[in-house]
Amino acid sequence: EKRTVTQIEKNGYPDSVYINAAKIFQGIHIEKSKDRNVVQYGDNSESPMMAFKDEHSRRVSYELAFNALKYQDLLEEILLDSKAYPCYSIPDELTSLLVVMLYDLQDRKFQKRKIFAEEELVAEVQEIGHYLYSYRTKLAAALARCRIKYDALSIEYFVPETIRKQEQRASALPLCFWINTLKISLEDVVRDLEMKGFTKVESVSDFDHYTYAVDQHCHDVLVFPSSLREELLNLDLFADYKLLLQ
């Protein structure tokens, strides 16, 4: 199951993730003034979210939505420059879906998304996905023009300075995980981590990559270096809800 999750992330996400990410983005996207409001986002506030399959689906839905928010200006410029927007067959209510799926498409280097046999397909996601992929060459060219125009080595250049500073601060903070004592004990977590090569240290000042510390005030909280985020989220302990990311 864990291998399947990793494969889905590499090749795209299930349709439900795009739908939920679009719904989240619709509620948080930046409203432009009327003289700048070229890309129109319809009002689909009444449409419900799909149920999150699990905590992993919830997390990636929010990550996708907030990544689209970070690069909203760039994504809108790519859509307009490539002439992929406006498209009269795509209503304004699906613009949020268009933007989130464009972010994911460029993140996959404009490679085709893989569809998995067990995935529940959503017609709108399939439609937008096929539409964007048909424009992939023009979209990639528009992104390249934007990078040349702003002398940007990567799209990270387009992140607003305030957000960039917040991310830099957040990325330096240690990761805290609660031990789900309904499922596992501290001793069993420690044993599992040691089998995977982790070493317990006294405090965060002693961190050296594969290390962790027990919180001094909450003994059911473990603290890890921020650099281990992706590796920790792929542990069985996390997948089985035995460790919960704070």
UniProtKB/TrEMBL annotation:
InterPro entries: NSUN5_7_fdxn-like, NSUN7
A GO BP entry: methylation
Ranges of residues in domain NOL1/NOP2/NSUN 5/7 ferredoxin-like: 179-227
GO-annotated molecular function: methyltransferase activity
Keywords: Methyltransferase, Transferase
Pfam families in the record: NSUN5_fdxn-like (PF21148)
Name assigned to this protein: NSUN7 methyltransferase
